[in-house]
């Protein structure tokens, strides 16, 4: 689907959609328990539906309900009590990397053989660090095509013990291990070498697991490291200690609003003269992308956050341009496309660093944003680890043009915001917003965005 966006001035109030990250984990953790629980304000998107369907295949009973008074979506889960059954057919995770990683580790706890696959994008995303760790732990996990990507065949069970994994590619590998290890008979330990990227997502995993009564202990330890040249050094190693034979019991749980999804409209309101946007349902949580408030503040936006009531207000009544900033994206990879657009329309220079893990998402987002923003006149440079954007040099060059969404929901939504600023931007593969924000176009229309599809 193509969407053609005209210059637009957003004004109004929108309730933030539910967090995709929290919904994934809450559904999975509820499925690991045995008692029925109700998940309120849950996100029903393509990705979270993939997790729900996969959990059903492992034995969970999951139903969707709608509150007749509020029209709010709820999910009722009756789990399989930590004893997953073997799915009778391959699990298709669609486009969801989170689903694939969580279910791969769970499959290494189940009996029998489990096959996991997904769409074309998933079959290009590497899972090598997770497969290596699971195999070292006693399972037999095979990438059918021998490239570390799905389809995956999981046979044999992992054993409790000391696991070592590289944290530099994806935090989803760590979350998958953290949630499956409590089901093992005895204690386990996971040591993370290299900096753990996207750590807030692991924090979300631990937060919900602890809410379900599961203990996961985090600490740092100095350990000796032998470099390739034979030299010896010491570095901090992040370690998670997980007692075995634990039981999950999440109980009723309310999913918080999603800051990743909120970032698009908040950024549009900060950039566009005359815009005035209020977003509700955004309470403090472990989400790293709540940093969008700090980012917009640093860029000079008129923004306020009432944390007690979960309300963020952004306006640009004076029509001022924002200023470029430097941002370390190690903890906030999903904000990178939004920040690239922010930098293209801000004065000065914007540097996004520590973002090499953004290359391993639905698409290589550093490359994609460089290609697409260049088409609309931005002066942007892709580096090995991030992006350098000269808003100053881009200032008089920005113009509408057809751009590619790369079948990536975050690329599509960020380019849509660029279209609201300059007009004349047509984005293809726009249907991909269903992955994380099914109501995106409806919400944009509510606040005055002008577009055709």
From TrEMBL:
Catalytic class of the enzyme: transferase
Q: Where in the cell is it found?
A: Cytoplasm
Q: Which residues bind 3-phosphoshikimate?
A: 20-21, 25, 170-172, 198, 334, 361
Catalysed reaction per UniProt?
3-phosphoshikimate + phosphoenolpyruvate = 5-O-(1-carboxyvinyl)-3-phosphoshikimate + phosphate
Single GO term (MF): 3-phosphoshikimate 1-carboxyvinyltransferase activity
Q: Which family does it belong to?
A: Belongs to the EPSP synthase family.
The UniProt entry, under NCBIfam families, shows: aroA
What's the protein name? Answer: 3-phosphoshikimate 1-carboxyvinyltransferase
What is the native source organism of this protein?
Methanimicrococcus stummii
